[in-house]
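tool=predict chain=A
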Amino acid sequence: MRAHLGDQLVIERTTTGAAKRDGEIVGLHHEDGTPPYDVRWSDTDEVTLVFPGPDAHIRHLEHGQPESTHAPSDPGTAAAEGMPPRAPNPGDIGRRVAVERHRQRLSREETARRARMSPGYLEYLESPPADPSMATLIGLADALGTTVTTLRGGGMDLPPGQGHALLHPQLRDIGPEECRRLLSTHGVGRVAVTAPDGRPAVVPVNYEVIDAAIVFRTAPDSTPAAAVGAEVAFEVDHMDLALSQGWSVLAVGPASVVTEPDTVRRLTEHAHTTPWAGGERAMWVSIRPAHLTGRRITPAEG
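tool=predict ok
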């Protein structure tokens, strides 16, 4: 018996009255894929060390069929032998997991420990295509402080907030220190400006936080460039659609263009990402927050 990470271990109980049981293999103890295995059971979500007996077989992730002595080398061969083709890539689950892990500055080992899986299995999940079980996704979402829906990319084309409100919501203010923590590092935020035509505009931008200043790149003739020389508002937020919770932080302060060559070079070299909008965007704008406020929606206590 040989298995890979992500395969399913199925136990056909031969004892009278005993139920069939299955689970996802989340840890290997031998490089050749031979037993024992760390298995996350689908019925309990518990991870245990398993030495499979004669009543067990492996259902491989690639084709959903029990282990056999001959595996087809390509989809055409699989079809010729009457086996379903390799499961399609379910999306960028692995990439989303990796991005969220790096965003929170978590090591693969620490994330795996929180999710109760082996680091090797997490490495496998972050290498597409991967189609982890719901139990594994729930564990990863809990370890990363996010949701299964987010990891699976659900609702990407829908505006947030379409779910039901909490039964007893609580709206509370966020203190300045927590606002700075939520705003810190980098991401996507919205800058509110008065556009050149005199109309108000709110534009999303990729931003960084450097030396307590909010900085972003843009083009001199773009709408965000209208922030220069004015007091502007900058907002970031996060919505947990599954739990109908979230927070928002609003920074208000003067904006200016960064002109010092060494500073521009340092910002460019240490930027976490390039502007999603593309194009030539070499102008750095800096916002120095004079006022920092935030709010969070959570379930009412008690």
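Confidence is low (pLDDT under 50) at residues 63-91. The longest helix spans residues 93-103.
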